[in-house]
Specification:
Layout (H helix, E strand, L loop, with lengths): L4 H21 L6 H12 L3 H8 L5 H8 L4 E2 H22 L3 H20 L2 E2 L22
Parallel strand pairs: 1-2
Helix pairs in contact: 1-2, 2-3, 5-6
C-alpha cells in the first residue's frame, strides 16, 4: 500500500466515525453511511481500527449485519425512514428555496428509502417472559 494512503484512509475513517457519532444527535446528519465509510476505510488500512469499530457496543452489530448481508431490524428501518422523511420535509419546507434543491432532496429520499426497503429485515429476538411455559429456551442469538 502506498505510504500516504494508509494514514489518509485512517484519517478519513476516524473523521467518518466522528461525523457518525454527531449524526446520532443531529437529525439531518446520517449516522449509518458514515459508519459504513469508516468500516470501508479501516478495512483497507487498519485491522485494529476495523476490529474496534465492528465490535463496539453501539455500532458493531449494525455494521456487521449490514456487511454480512443480514440486513437490519424492522424497528430500525421504520425509525430510519421516519427520521429521513421528517428531516427532508423540514429541509424542503424551511431551508430549500429553489425548486431544484427540493427535487434533489426528494431524489435522495427516494434513493435511500428504496435502498432501505430492499435490505433484508430480521426480527429482533427477545428473551421469553419469565411466566412462559417451562422448558422453553430463548432462540439462539445471531451475534458475533
Amino acid at each position: 500500500m502506498h505510504s500516504l494512503l494508509r494514514p489518509l484512509l485512517i484519517t478519513v475513517g476516524t473523521l467518518s466515525v466522528a461525523l457518525g457519532v454527531v449524526g446520532i444527535f443531529v437529525p439531518i446528519l446520517p449516522t449509518t453511511p458514515f459508519m459504513l465509510l469508516a468500516a470501508a476505510c479501516y478495512a483497507r488500512s487498519s485491522d485494529r481500527f476495523l476490529h474496534w469499530l465492528l465490535h463496539n457496543r453501539p455500532f458493531g452489530a449494525y455494521i456487521l449485519n449490514y456487511r454480512e448481508g443480514r440486513g437490519m431490524p424492522r424497528s430500525t428501518k421504520i425509525l430510519t425512514l421516519l427520521a429521513l422523511w421528517t428531516t427532508l420535509s423540514i429541509s424542503a419546507a424551511f431551508a430549500a428555496e429553489a425548486w431544484w434543491v427540493r427535487l434533489v432532496l426528494l431524489g435522495v429520499g427516494l434513493g435511500v428509502s428504496i435502498h432501505l426497503l430492499k435490505l433484508r429485515t430480521y426480527p429482533v429476538r427477545r428473551m421469553p417472559d419469565k411466566k412462559a411455559a417451562p422448558g422453553l429456551t430463548p432462540a439462539p442469538r445471531d451475534e458475533p
